Prior knowledge:
heterotetramer; A: 2 domains; elongated; B: alpha/beta; six-stranded parallel sheet; 12 helices
Amino acid sequence: MAELLFEIPGVESGRAFGLILILGIFILGIYYMRRGKLPYIRRVAAIDAISEAVGRSTEMGKPVLCSYGTGGFGYAVIAAMSILGHVARTCAETDTRLLVPTGGSHTSYLTRELAIDIVKGQYTAAGKPEMYNEDDMPFLSGEQYSFTAGYIGMLVRDRPGAVIMTGGHSSEAMNIAEMSNLVGALTITSGTYVSNMAALACASDYIMLVDEQPAAGAYLSKDPEQLATIRVVDIYKVLSLLLIVVGLLVLNTTGNDFIRRLLAS
Amino acid sequence: MGKEGVNLLKLMATYDKRWGYLLLFILVLLPMLQPIGMPISVSELTKDYLKQLETLEEGDIVLDSWSTEYSGYMELKPGMIATHKYFIKNGIKLFICLGHPEGLALVDALLNEEIKGYMEKYDYTYGEDYIILGFALPNQAATLAMATDFQGSVKVDWKGDSIKGTFLDRIETGADIDMIADFTTGAGNPGLINHIVLTFGTPMIQNQIGVSLPGSFMNLDAGLITGLLASTRGGSELELLIKEPGPGLIAMDAFTLGHYLLIILIVIGNIGFFGWTKKVSEKMESTTIR
Amino acid sequence: MSWFFKSKQVNLAILVASFMIGFVPYFIKVPQVNEFANTLTNISSVVGQFTIVIAIYSQYRRSLRFIRERRKGWVYNIYLLTFMSLMILIGFTWGEHNATYMWLVNSIVAPCSSVVYGILAFYMFSAGARAFRARSLKASLLIVAGVIVLLYQAPLTGSVIPGIEPYAVFLTGTVGMSLSRMFAIAIITGAIMLNVRMLTGRELAFLGFAREEES
Amino acid sequence: MEQWTFISQIFQIFIAFCLFTTLYGKGNPLRSWAEYSYLAAGTAMSVMWAWTYIRNHAVIGLQAGELIWIPAIILGLMMWFRIYPKYSYISRIPIAFTIGIGMAWTIRTSIFTQFISQISATIVPIFDQGPMWLFERTVIAVGVITMMSFFLYTMEIKGPHLWSATFGEYFMYLAFGAVFAGTFMGRLGLFVGHMQSYMFPVWKQPYTIGILLLVFVVMLALERTGWGAKLSA
Lengths: 265, 290, 215, 233
């Protein structure tokens, strides 16, 4: 470990810079959320893929299957809920049947309730509350592989035209993606960890990489506060790039360990 | 060539993938019926892992963390057996913490079956040389509690017997642990790195499944872990290095054939793609890779 | 009393307070605070274990509905409930080191768990065979990297062509690793930002507030 | 006892191959039976683990006079109100409490392991350990920077940024190839290890092959006669 650059009295040594970074996220986050001004946000290609997938299903008269993951309330699942909302709205408007498998973990009962609220809300907002059918959002048990088996059962029985699998799916994702390919559905997925991402990129028709999913979710939600989130994330990404570039340049030209000492502080 | 040639190309591009499944099944089982004994090489990664093991001295205490379900054990088995044989042979003291409920089945499979004879040979006994603490590290909080006040947070072993009077009396905090050996199927228990490695500078070696290797390489490069044994392949290399042949080396024939089958199918797929898909149909196969 | 539980402010206050209790001690040097935080954390991990009952309840309810409505596969649900109840009963009565209980774990959970992960080898296999086709520069890069690493990983080629090792190690250890590193750095801020939104009361849906706001 | 071990081993092989019939892509009763057995046993096991955890901490602690476990049990019981929609609001307090603590634990350390350590590990002297080191370290830095630039959303990608992002995207696919191969090795290792446990010791081999063929034939027969779909879950 490099020598410390500074210490804050009372703060554990070696943890001050981390604390400053976290506080920075809090301050920037609250500032951008309060400001309420919509930042520019690039339209992620996934959004077009989703529209295409839903459109294709509508044309073929097949249902759309959209899932938001098996995990509890995390970064990926919250983003997936925005995407689910958008898909539900499109389905309601185009009279396409929407299937949403839920469950998969002990934390999924809480997410399930939110998902039901969202889908119901979108059908109501589109003026077709009677089209909402709770049987199309079955609870497939709180165990991961039973959920997977149920999910695959839905794929085989209902033969959806599109499968939009977003949010926090783990090892069952490959299982679902290959099966969905077998039944001829257009498959859109998102990877939540690196090896999963590489495998899903091969298995699915379209994949949202790294944090494209939260970006797409924020874009579709049009909620200024979610968009502000993306802004802060970008600022930190740029900050990390700057730290790397400056750190490497300074260290290798002058031998000064400044940035690493700052990071270790 | 004529029509038949075209059909062969079409077959290469669009064959039913279940034939591939069947072939994989056969190619994995065959070499087990009739071992071929193909040679293997040892990677630098495994050599470094062994160097880490060699820093331990007799009587050192290792936190032996098994954060794997039973299925992951199938992949980690060669590495787990080889590493534990090294520990046993060199008189290292172990306290085993399970990070997953299915770990219970592992105790049976590993300690009571695979290396039972080996433990008897070196007179490696429960209580004196190793202790099983059971599902003691379910989360970060438990790990922190163990790292800051070991005696306060751990009182009994997995069967509810007191651990007083054993070698664990020597541990007050994480600083008294000489090494962490983590056998894991994922990030494992992040608490090990966060609360023991980062706080006390304890070296940590890891035996990781192939799926989660990218993350482990990253941690290895950042110095958060000091040794890495990669999947079954790493385990069999360690078997070779410590001269204790086991299941890993037997698995290597099937391993080689499985890999070659995929490579062959990739070649066939490409011939089919250029010979048929590209000419006949504009519709691409279902994949993001374009 | 129910206003207390229902109040958004009260729940938010508990969320923030428990966050602070967990968060602050890591950064400041006061041992007593640390100890208190550890105690609360131990409590929270015990509390978390209680949710299993909700899981079981949902499972029973779902299965009973299948049985009542004679839906496809209802017989399996009878089997499921009976078997599950029996095993729980055995576990509670004789403890989990009991031979019968251990037999069930070793003979059912262990092989099935190995299958559900092992089967992914087949899915990886077919996805690879389908996707690794040289459609473009991107796909070609994927194939080149993939095949080199595959050849190295296959023990035979790894030892017959030792020259391949540095390339494969470069691809996994250097190129693959930088992807993981980028991923780790990119994802962390967003995760913390989500927590900022939760702590400032903007994302309380997880407590079930969404439903009431709408109605 | 010997006989019992034998029966157990045969049973394990049988249930495993029943579950492997999933690969055929059609439902059949063998698979359904294996799946439901797994679900039942797995859930029961989770229950036992949760109970053991509560017992080893809260119950034993209480017996030793540690009163701090009383609120833990009360909060845990409050969680159960999630079942009754009318009173589910009571469960919010334990949920807020556990989520708050969990959040704190994740944030406070992940900033070090995922952000600071990773940036710090990228900043190293690149000239002092030979050309290979120089090359590798440069690749890591360039890889991280260019790939990251591909994932910036609130700025338009143009000019040099476009170059960087495009390079990053290609770099990423190169990495995917390597990662995919590694993942394949892992899953294959798991499968091979699993099969190995059914093929060794050698006495198991005829039984394993026999059961494999039996399950395969039964599955095909069920599929051809149409009974497979009818009898499956």
